[in-house]
Amino acid sequence: MFKEARIKLTLYYLVIMMIINVFFSLIIYRGATSELRRIESIQHLRRPAPFKVVIEPEIVEETKRRIAFALVYLNIFILGIAGAGSYLLAGKTLEPIKKNMDDQKDFVSNASHELRTPLTSLKTEIEVALRDKRLSLADAKNIIKSNLEEVNKMQSLSNYLLNLNKYQGGNGNIIFTNVDLKKVALVAIGKNNIKTDLKKSFVNGNEKSLVELVKILIDNALKYSGEDSEIEVKVSDGTLEVKDNGAGISKEDLPHIFDRFFRGDKSRSKDGYGLGLSIAKQIADVHGAKLAVESRLKKGSTFKLLFS
C-alpha cells in the first residue's frame, strides 16, 4: 500500500515541478527571443541604409532553435533529478505515517493478545464447571473467585490502555500548574518503606500525572528488587531520581524498556503488561521532561526524570 502511495506522491511532485519548470522555461525563451529582436532593431537604427540587415534571419531562427533545445535538455535533466528527489521526499513524507500505522497495528495485536489470555482462562473454567454435574458450592465459589481475578486483570489492562491513550500525542486537557516535586514524591511513596533525600523543587506540570509517573517507577523498583533491596528516591533542582539495587536491566533490553508491551526476559515471570514505563515516558514527554535510565545487571537501576 505504501509503495503505491509513494509512487503516486512522487508523480504528484513531478507534475508540480514540471509545470513550474515549463512556465519558467517559456519565460526564459520569450525573454531570449525578445532580446534578439531588440538587438536587431537597435542595429537597424544605428546602421546606414545600405547596411540595415546585419543579422541574417536564418541565424536568428537557428539561435531560437538552439535556445529551445537547450531548455528542453535542461528540463529533461531537471526531470531526472527531480524524479529521484521526489521519490526520496515522498518516502520521507510517508515514513511517519507508516510508522504510526505499524505502531497502531502492533498495539492492537499486542492488546488483543493480552486480552485473549484472561478471556480464554475465563471461558475454559466456566465450560469445565458447566460440564461438572457434581459441582459443589465451595467449588463454584472458587471458580468465581478465580474468574474475578481474571476480570481484575482485564480491568487493569483497560486502565493502562486508557492512560496510554490519554497521554499519547500531546497534553490534551491536562492543566499545568507550579508543582513541587518533593510533594509529588511523598504522595507517590505513600506508606512504602523507601529511603528518601527530598528537597523542594518546583516545576511546571500536572501534579496528578507526575504522581502517577513516580508511582510507576517506584512500583517497578519494588517489583524487580528483592526483599532486602534498598530503594531510594531523590529530588533536587528539577530532577527526580528513583534508584534501586535490584536485578537490573540487560544491555539488550535497555533500548526497548519504554516500548509498549515490551517485557524483558527477567520480567516475564512477573505480573504486568509492559505498559507502565511506556505510560511514564508519555507523561514525561507531555511535560517536556526527559526520562532517562542507567542500569547494570545484578547492580540495579536508576531512573531520572529531568526537567529543563
Low-confidence stretches: none
Number of domains: 2
What gyration radius follows from the Cα positions, in whole Å? 35 Å
Strand segment tally: 7
Structural class by secondary-structure content: alpha+beta
Tell me the overall shape.
Answer: elongated
Question: What is the arithmetic mean of pLDDT?
Answer: 80
Helix content: 55-70%
Instruction: Please describe the biggest sheet, giving its number of strands, its sense, and whether it closes into a barrel.
Output: 5 strands, mixed
Strand order of the largest sheet: 2-4-5-7-6
Strand content: 5-15%
Order of helices and strands: HHHEHEEHEEHEE
Q: Distance between the terminal alpha carbons, to the nearest Å?
A: 41 Å
- How many H/I helical runs? 6
What does the secondary structure layout of this molecule look like, with pairings?
Layout: H1 2-46, H2 57-131, H3 137-167, E1 177-180, H4 181-189, E2 195-198, E3 202-205, H5 207-223, E4 231-236, E5 239-244, H6 276-286, E6 290-296, E7 300-306
Helix pairs in contact: 1-2, 2-3, 3-6, 4-5, 5-6
